[in-house]
Design a protein that fits this description.
Chains A, B: Pfam families: TetR_C_1 (PF02909), TetR_N (PF00440). Chains A, B: One of its GO terms (biological process) is negative regulation of DNA-templated transcription. Chains A, B: Residues 29-89 form the HTH tetR-type domain. The structure is a homodimer of 225-residue chains. Chain A is mostly helical and 225 residues long. Chain A folds into two domains: 18-85, Homeodomain-like (Arc Repressor Mutant, subunit A, Orthogonal Bundle); 93-223, Tetracycline Repressor, domain 2, CATH 1.10.357. Chain A contains nine helices and no strands. In chain A, helix 1 crosses helix 2 (53-60), helix 5 (120-127) packs antiparallel against helix 7 and helix 6 packs across helix 7 (150-167). The longest helix of chain A is centred in the last third of the chain and has 25 residues, at 200-224. The first copy, chain A, is globular, with a radius of gyration of 22 Å. The first copy, chain A, starts with 31 loop residues before the first helix and ends with a helix. Chains A and B meet through helix 6, helix 7, helix 8 and helix 9 of A and helix 6, helix 7, helix 8 and helix 9 of B. Chain A binds a DNA duplex (19 and 19 nucleotides) through loops.
Chain lengths: 225, 225
DNA sequence: ACCTGAACACCGTTCAAGT
DNA sequence: ACCTGAACACCGTTCAAGT
């Protein structure tokens, strides 16, 4: 129904160029980089849940199976997308401040990427201990510096991870919506501030809750020893 | 390939029973209750992501469109499933203790239901402010009692909600897995305790982090006024 | 080496039809 | 009133084939 995307037509008859790049801008062959770029485009515009192998192939102007030459399956594609989306995050230097500050600096950057890539949290929350090891390691190093025991470093990281990547799913697009019947009392009182959930206030509150909570666990750990 | 499920064959020729229930156990007609029960069976055994309208119809031994006579679409089915799965939660009495204790009592019950219904957190995390109003209201009332401002009641609830329903997705089934290359330093140190993530320790730590963190926000709120 | 095309086993859902 | 059957527009993926 829609027009085809503005990408070039399947570039097979442009000339007798055997391999490599064409003189013009048209792509003679795909590449992993192009595939990831196209996937990221879809994710940024329509969100991860709209990214399908078939949609990706349309975006690239190739047949549905073409991307499979470069990626084994969809889950590998999502791994590549996640890695690309999280690229450019700078790990705070150890001297840049106390652990709480360094942790926030790291979390803030991740959250920024998540905002730009709707639904990405969903991808990242599951794979957790399999991918993005460098990033996770950086967070864990901060927690070690804070004084957490190895066991609590893992658990504390999992707590952060759960909150950070789950956050994006809460109260996303769905507008106010026709709320049914008359609302329960406390619910109605609180709901006067729904708009706060979309903005920075909820973010600040939530992250502060987690970090302050972690501080409390650190104190408990030390007074238990 | 598989055998058909052990449910009765499509019960059309059992007798000339016009309507209502048959003398035997076979169902002459469907009902919302039966549909929800079948859906819950699928969820408990295989998880929410295996629950499809078609799988549900197979489970019931009817044609794929039959359930649509009782539920408008899949999202309505999921709402019914979520409500049924959360049934039986007892809201702690106001006199049963301080807010932290009452909140935990509520959260513990919800988490128990979530454990029995894999993937249900995913359903609940999105609908948040549209369904389960009574449960949400109960949580919010506790937060009001604690002394949170209306705005912070909503934000605090959202923080709990995010963590509680996101928790189930982290480190679920995927076994140890063939971890690649050699691991980064802090990561490797912490990973010696992976097994803790599946057990009660992670739950205790995480919930304590959130509640202690909320306490800290309450103090901040009061000292800011 | 790189891509296409047909096919399979799935989805959710609409719509007309059967009893 | 309650259910079926065919059909449509989607998925991910396998497998054989084309250049």
């Amino acid at each position: 129904m829609n027009r085809n995307s503005s990408a070039a037509e399947p570039p097979q008859g442009v000339g007798a160029v055997r391999a490599g790049r064409t003189p013009s801008g048209a792509n003679p062959t795909l590449s992993e980089a192009e595939i990831v770029a196209a996937a990221l485009r879809v994710v940024r515009v329509d969100g991860v849940d709209k990214l399908s192998m078939r949609r990706l192939s349309r975006e690239l102007g190739v047949s549905p199976m073409a991307p499979y030459y470069y990626v084994a399956d969809k889950s590998e594609l999502l791994d590549l997308v996640a890695t690309a989306a999280l690229a450019g995050i700078r790990i705070p230097e150890p001297e840049s401040g106390p652990w709480q500050v360094r942790l926030r600096a790291l979390i803030d950057q991740i959250d920024e990427k998540l905002r730009k890539h709707p639904g990405l949290g969903d991808v990242l929350i599951e794979q957790m201990l399999k991918k993005q090891l460098t990033l996770i390691d950086a967070a864990m190093e901060i927690l070690f510096d804070a004084g957490f025991s190895p066991r609590n470093v893992l658990t504390a990281y999992a707590t952060i991870h759960t909150y950070l990547f789950g956050r994006s799913r809460v109260v996303n697009d769905n507008g106010p919506g026709p709320l049914p019947q008359q609302l329960p009392k406390s619910f109605a009182r609180a709901m006067a501030h729904v708009d706060d959930l979309r903005g920075k206030y909820f973010y600040e509150f939530g992250i502060a809750t987690v970090i302050d909570g972690l501080e409390a666990q650190l104190v408990r750990q030390q007074s238990a020893k």
